[in-house]
Amino acid sequence: MPRALALGASLLLASMLSSLASTSELVGTGFRKTLTMKSGESVRYQIHLEAGEIVQGAADQDGIDVVVNTYDPSGAKIGSVDSPNGTKGPEPFTIRAKTAGDYTVEIKPLDAGYGKVTVHIDALVSKEAYADQLFAKAYPAAPVAELVKAMRTNGPSAFDVFAAKYKGHFPIITPRKDDDKDITFFFKASPKTISMSLQGPAFANFETPMQRLASTDIWYVTVTAPKDAQFVYLFQQESSSPDVADQDPLLPQTEKHPALDPLNPVFGAGRNLLKLPGAPPETYSTKLKDVPQGKVVKESLSSKILKENRAFSVYTPSGWNGTTPANLVLVFDGEAYGAGNGALVPTPTILDNLIAKKKIGPTVVILVNNMGLRNRDLTCYQPFADFLAKELVPWVKKHYAISGDPHRTVVAGSSFGGICSAYAGLKYPNVFGSVLSQSGSYWFYPNWATATLANSQEQSLIKSYFDSKRLPLNIYMEVGILEGDSMVQSNRRMRDILRLKGYPITYREYTDAHDYQTWRESLADGLIALLGKKR
Questions:
Q1: Which positions ≥6 away from 514 have C-beta within 8 Å?
Q2: Pick from 511, 526, 443: which is nearest to 479 by CA?
Q3: 3-state DSSP: the chain helix, strand, coil percent, rounded to 5?
Q4: Residue 388's closest CA among 398, 379, 377?
Q5: Peptide linkage before 171 cis (omega within 30 of 0)
Q6: How far apart are CA 253 and CA 192, in angstroms?
Q7: Between the CA atoms of 488, 354, 527 and 387, what dihedral angle is there, to the nearest 10 degrees?
Q8: Residue 440: is its pLDDT beyond 90?
Q9: Does residue 353 contact residue 527 with C-beta atoms inside 8 Å?
Q10: Which of 131, 134, 133, 163 is nearest to 147 (CA)?
Q11: Which pLDDT does position 203 carry in this prediction?
Q12: What's the pLDDT at 243?
């Protein structure tokens, strides 16, 4: 550097230091002062710190937006704070002294006009307390902060102690100031894990990225849920492929696979289940003592309409004489709504309990298997509706004593099965006089993956109901508020159209997600609403 330039730089630095020193007030911890400031002004305060000391303070804004700059003893800027709180609230600052000397705090208004600023410099903060602050900011969820503190003391092995402490209470639920709850999930992954996510309901955006805890193999995420929520979940784990070193570089270098939560032994619908303390109890979906069990028989029917053989199961209630006309319920996705310990929705058990408690009368249930064709059959497919009305129901009435009142024949399903129920009722109201829709996918329309929104409105089932005359149907609809906007809003729109047309409708919203855990209990609510003895 030329001598003249070096001299100029030295004089400029000396001028800056002189300026800072000449206009700065030397203060100590506990200092507090309220100022009236305007744009173009600035104030500076100096505090002497020994090497390693940490001090914190703030400039509390009242009517004017300020920025807080901090400088080390050499005059170099070491920090600048301008929080997005406008002209009201604190601008907190922290100074960590690397060397002993006088450190400067500068307050500069950013806005035109006048306002008050209260500057305060608080007590010195120990390294340990400051580290705790940083950890609390990095890990705001209390369970994560607790684990971090334990690992700082005892290393990675602290997780095993932590897991033992909370055994039976994972995921960890912590209260909030409002009625919601924070839920923290943990997962101990393999060293090859690259990323993880929580796959759950809509409040967790269906797939929420998890964070690795520092350099450990522990992953975590915290989500907020309503106090009465219940839902199933699992984790999605992405790991480096075992033979990544030998792979062709054009091939995938990672693999994704689902993982259950080993810390939560409670399961539902093939996934981990979490029921918050405020979630409703299961009243009808569990076997009750001294309730006689009905009979389930597997059947099949060769369909001329569909040109295929269709499998289904028939439930008949215990004690039914077989001659008294019974209610009839057709339920889609019979594999999931079937009998046995593996049923996601134990429909036979639900019917046993409802009939034993005299909530509904004797009812025959047809569990219609989807046979891997649900995306075809359950999406407003006319041939499938024809099969139900012209082949399946006549077969049932030929073999069982079924009431001739169409309102005592219920067509029921969930998701796509929900809209199929409404579609069957629309096409054959004199066969299916009652529609039970669980989380019906009323957002659906033909060619939905490629059609425009305008086409969707023209072709949707909602519009079909709007355009048709009022039909002799009783309708039960439900949706979970944790299912996402498209599900909730389309169900509400369908509800509004049905009410506008004058349909007798029972509509309910639950604090639940789009899964069988919800439907296994709410199926009973729908059957009581449509077939209950008090109707």
A1: 201, 202, 415, 439, 480, 482, 483, 484, 487
A2: 511
A3: 30, 35, 35
A4: 377
A5: yes
A6: 12
A7: 110
A8: yes
A9: no
A10: 163
A11: 60
A12: 52
Give the position of tokens 């030329």: 2
Whether residue 353 contacts residue 282, with contact meaning beta carbons closer than 8 Å, is answered with no
Which residue has tokens 């310990």? 341
Q: Are strands 43-49 and 101-109 parallel, antiparallel or unpaired?
A: antiparallel
CA distance 133 to 209: 24
Q: Which of 491, 529, 527 minimizes the C-alpha distance to 509?
A: 491
Average pLDDT over residues 62-70: 94
299 with 391: CB under 8 angstroms? no
pLDDT in tens, 297-348: 999 999 999 999 999 999 999 999 999 999 999 999 999 998 666 788 999 9
Residue listed under structure tokens 């995420």: 221
Coil, strand, or helix at residue 167? coil
Which residue, 292, 351, 341, 289, is CA-closest to 318? 292
The model's pLDDT over 10-27, given as tens digits with 9 standing for 90+, comes to 434 444 444 443 457 899
Length of the chain: 535
Strand, helix or coil for residue 34: strand
Asked whether residue 245 carries a pLDDT value surpassing 60, the answer given is: no
- Measured in Å, how far apart are the chain's first and last C-alpha atoms? 96
SS3 20: helix
For residue 206, what pLDDT is reported? 72
Q: Under a CB-based contact definition with an 8 Å cutoff, are residues 384 and 427 in contact?
A: no
Query: 298-306 — which CB contacts under 8 Å span 24+ positions?
Result: 301/391, 301/392, 301/395, 303/387, 303/391, 304/391, 305/383, 305/386, 305/387, 305/390, 305/391, 306/383, 306/384, 306/387
Exposure b/e, 440-461, CB count within 10 A at least 16 = b? bbbbbbeeeeeeeeeebeebbb
At residue 521, φ and ψ (nearest 5 deg) are -100, -35
Residue 57, strand partner residues: 93, 121
